[in-house]
Automatic annotation (TrEMBL):
Domain Response regulatory: 3-121
The keyword Kinase is annotated on this UniProt entry: no
GO annotation (BP), single: phosphorelay signal transduction system
Protein name according to UniProt: DNA-binding response regulator
Length: 220
């Protein structure tokens, strides 16, 4: 059973998502919250698999709520998905950087919404190549972070290569083709790199790759 926490300051939005989720045999809404602070408290109490969090809320917004969840070792199994009305913007970027696994626009089709919840529950990032490219664009003018560069020292050459390809927006199948390895091996390289770098998902791998200088903007 996939356990879901809803965090949104609009009761009608929460009710709509709950109605969609609770008709599914494999999904259960365990709690609702009207602001990020309450959402974090409920995440600690219920340990949901997926926390659907609105990016803009009063009191404690979705960015801060994401940061609190992502930095709490007790909540390492909670996958945050950001909800937004506007698509990819600076708020969403900041939430991804804070540790969100991806984001959904609130006018998403019901079947796509349910699929996204299941994808997030598996621990996969909701980060399409188009969104990865926007993350890349965000880092074009950023200087290399020496501390971030040092974090990559524990990676093998193949793991570094896999991370660089993730940062270019490639899927595991595309990485396998580029590296001339099986998709399973590609996934293993990516997962080991994530574990070594303590990255929650592919979004954070992209951020680390650009902050560290592993991938330069000119290589896009």
């Amino acid at each position: 059973m996939i356990r879901v926490l809803l965090v949104d300051d609009q009761p009608l939005i929460r009710s709509g998502f709950r109605a969609l989720l609770e008709v599914e045999d494999d999904i259960e809404v365990v709690a609702e919250a009207a602001d990020g602070g309450e959402g974090v408290a409920l995440a600690r109490r219920h340990l949901p698999d997926v926390a659907l969090i609105d990016v803009q809320m009063p009191v404690v917004d979705g960015i801060e709520a994401t940061r609190r969840i992502a930095t709490d070792p007790a909540l390492a199994s909670v996958h945050v998905v950001i909800l937004t009305n506007y698509g990819f913007d600076e708020y969403v970027f900041r939430a991804l950087r804070a540790g969100a696994a991806g984001f959904l626009v609130k006018d998403i089709q019901p079947e796509d919404f349910l699929h996204a919840v299941r994808v997030a529950a598996r621990g996969d990032a909701l980060l399409a190549p188009s969104i990865t490219r926007k993350l890349i664009n965000r880092y074009v003018t950023q200087p290399v972070d020496a501390a971030a560069s040092r974090t990559l020292e524990g990676l093998t050459n193949r793991e570094r290569e896999a991370v660089a390809l993730v940062a270019q927006g490639l899927s595991n199948d595309q990485i396998a083709e580029r590296m001339v390895i099986s998709p399973t091996t590609a996934k293993t390289h990516v997962n080991r790199a994530m574990a070594k770098l303590r990255a929650r998902d592919r979004a954070q791998l992209v951020v680390l790759a650009y902050e560290s200088g592993l991938v330069a903007p000119r290589s896009r």
